[in-house]
Amino acid sequence: MTKIYTPKIGPKGQMTLPKEIREALEIKEGDRVLLKVEPDGKVVLEKAIIVVASKKNEFRDATKI
Questions:
Q1: Which residue from 7, 14, 27, 61 could staple onto 22, CB 3.0 to 4.6 Å apart?
Q2: Alpha-carbon distance 37 to 50, whole Å?
Q3: Domain containing 11: what range?
Q4: Which of 4, 38, 43, 39 is nearest to 21 (CA)?
Q5: Ranges of residues in the chain whose predicted pLDDT is under 70
Q6: For the chain, how big is the Rg over CA atoms in Å?
Q7: How many domains does the chain have?
Q8: Residue 34: strand pairing partners
């Protein structure tokens, strides 16, 4: 069964992600999220993975394993 959420947008354009969404994506306070707008207009929300520039090559090499 698909669950639907309708968070309210505040005066500064902010919204609160429902607890169940935060838990599903393992998002905690201070984490960043990635929002992608697809060509068909859908918006995808993912937990962002931030890679420090000094570790960039290590991360790239690890993804080739």
A1: 27
A2: 19
A3: 1-65
A4: 4
A5: 55-65
A6: 15
A7: 1
A8: 46
